[in-house]
């Protein structure tokens, strides 16, 4: 059975996520980027396929809060500091304050 048949039964989020798990890496990346999903959701799905591609996408689309959140939870604090220095934030993203321990 072709995965494309399920498109009529799933919302776009679920369908794109399914494709990302069943199609080739390149095709999945292309479909995610060209989908109507939010940029944050695209970043999240891209992370599950290709970390470098996801980071490139987030940087290109200025998803700095998403990048900071990703690096923060990955314990890559040097990357968080690097983003703060590079983009000279005038605020601290809410994620730093909203962390639940």
Overview of this structure, please?
The chain is mostly helical and 101 residues long. Helices cover 66% and strands 0% of the residues. It is built from seven helices and no strands. The protein has helices spanning 12-22, 25-34, 39-49, 51-60, 64-73, 77-87, 94-97. Helix 1 (12-22) runs parallel beside helix 3 (39-49). The protein is elongated and about 45 Å long. The relative contact order is 0.09. The mean pLDDT is 80.
Task: Give a quick rundown of the structure.
The protein is an all-alpha fold.
Shape: elongated
Percent range for helical residues? Answer: 55-70%
Sequence of secondary-structure elements: HHHHHHH
Low-confidence stretches: none
| Mean pLDDT score | 80
Write the layout of secondary structure elements.
Elements: H1 12-22, H2 25-34, H3 39-49, H4 51-60, H5 64-73, H6 77-87, H7 94-97
Helix pairs in contact: 1-2, 1-3, 2-3, 3-4, 5-6
């Amino acid at each position: 059975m072709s995965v494309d048949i399920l498109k009529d039964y799933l919302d776009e989020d679920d369908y794109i996520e399914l494709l990302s798990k069943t199609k080739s890496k390149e095709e999945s990346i292309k479909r995610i980027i060209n989908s109507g999903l939010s940029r944050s959701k695209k970043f999240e799905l891209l992370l599950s396929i290709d970390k470098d591609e996801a980071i490139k996408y987030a940087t290109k689309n200025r998803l700095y809060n998403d990048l900071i959140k990703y690096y923060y939870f990955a314990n890559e604090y040097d990357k968080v500091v690097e983003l703060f220095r590079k983009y000279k934030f005038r605020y601290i993203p809410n994620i730093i304050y909203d962390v639940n321990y």
